[in-house]
Amino acid sequence: MAKKEFANLVKPMIIKAPPKGLYPEPRIWMEGKDLEGFDAHFSFGFIKKPTGPFHPLEGAIVHPYDELLVFETGGNTKNILEFDAEISVELGEEREEYVFTQPTVVLVPKGTPHGTVKVRKLGKPIVHYSIGLAAAYKASPTKVGAAVSKGKKYAKYIKKMITAVDPKAIGSGMGYESVIGRDGIMRPAKFGVGPGNGDEIVWLYGPDLEGFKVNFTWGLYSQCGKWHRGGESHYHPEAEILCFVGLDPDKPDYLGAELELGMGKDLERHVFNTPTCVVCPGGFPHLPLITRWVDKPYGFFVACLSGEHASPWVETKG
Fold first, then answer.
1. CB-facing half-sphere around the CA of 175: CA atoms within 13 A
2. What is the C-alpha to C-alpha distance for residues 125 and 46, in angstroms, rounded to an integer?
3. How far apart are CA 264 and CA 285, in angstroms?
4. Which of 57, 163, 191, 294 could join 179 in a cystine, given CB atoms 3.0 to 4.6 angstroms apart?
5. Residue 49: pLDDT band by 50, 70, 90 thresholds?
6. Quick one: pLDDT at residue 318?
7. Residue 109: partners with Cβ closer than 8 Å, 6 or more residues away
8. Residue 135, Cβ density class (10 Å: 0-12 exposed, 13-18 middle, ≥19 buried)
9. How many other CB atoms are found less than 10 A from the CB of residue 123?
10. Per residue in 98-110, pLDDT tens?
């Protein structure tokens, strides 16, 4: 069988030990060198039990780039806001401590010291993934105050994981703006965007993220079928990654579904049924995306290197 032209853009997830001193166990970890030069890196895993500090395990660190730390539901497709946990994080030289009990993204502007993340309580496993806005992970240890502060200087960097209701903030062109509930949750499969699309999704954009040059999602998926209406393929002006992950905390190499994705102007088909990251360079046509079968619900997140998410449809012949 001839090698497909865009096979290099469809990447099996890499599971390995993270950089020393960051997390206590292996997780999905991919950088630009693994992603055809994509100018960001990410990790993905589960918090399965109350544990000691992580990110980092000791002390505090700074990065020379903006970073997002995401804490989300572990897989209830009927309630993406379910969050049976209490998490704390320290930000700044002042060691301001923030505690949250709902799905949250913590924004860490470049150069901002951040210290230990702690799991104070945990009833059910939760998802934790990170997105660093540079191709390679870099961190330096730094000194911070001796005592935790109760100040609020960094409070604006703690964000709820819900979608902005203002349709102007969407800008996707894919019909998502019509399926946002009053609770800030998208339910595209329920409202006819496409039967294979998400049961529940949240999507945050640059205006929601203090101007970070990124927009990203978290979604839970359980149905078969095509994901979108409106055209066969689309593109984005900026580069994007599409990340398909399983929801079994003990099986990071298990997806539980099989999907088919069209790539390039000729819609070259790629099929995968293990955790996979698809790289879409700026201007690269992709879709249709079709879920062929589902044994277990799975998770999906997008990271696009722009505060907006323009998605023009590509006109096809015929």
1. 15
2. 6
3. 5
4. 191
5. confident
6. 44
7. 66, 157, 210
8. middle
9. 11
10. 999 999 999 999 9
pLDDT at position 293: 98
Give 57's contacts (C-beta < 8 A, 6+ positions apart): 21, 22, 23, 24, 116
What is the residue type of 294?
Answer: V
Q: Check the CA dihedral 201-183-97-206 and report its sign.
A: positive
Residue 257, SS3 per DSSP: strand
Structure tokens at 37: 């030069």
Task: Answer whether CATH 3.30.450.20 is correct for domain 167-311.
Answer: no
- pLDDT category at 76 given cuts 50, 70, 90 is confident
Neighbour count for residue 47 (Cβ, 10 Å): 21
Architecture of domain 11-160: Sandwich (2.60)
Structure tokens at 308: 């907006």
Picking from 84, 73, 292, 78, the residue whose alpha carbon sits closest to that of residue 200 is 78
Look at the chain and count its residues: 318
Listed residue (175, 172, 219, 218) closest to 194, CA to CA: 175
Letter for the amino acid at 80? I
CA 16, distance to chain mean position in Å, is 18
224: left (phi over 0), alpha (psi -120 to 50) or beta: beta
Per-residue DSSP letters for 96-164?
Answer: EEEEESS-EEEEE-TT--EEEEEEEEESS-EEEEEEESSSS---EEE---SS-B---TTGGGEEES---
d(CA 30, CA 279): 12
Q: Structural domain boundaries of the chain?
A: 11-160, 167-311
Query: Mind listing the pLDDT tens digit for each residue in 277-292?
Result: 999 999 999 999 999 9
DSSP run (H or E) holding 286: strand 286-294
The answer for residues whose C-beta is within 8 angstroms of residue 85's C-beta and 6 or more apart is 47, 71, 101, 119, 121, 122, 123, 124, 126
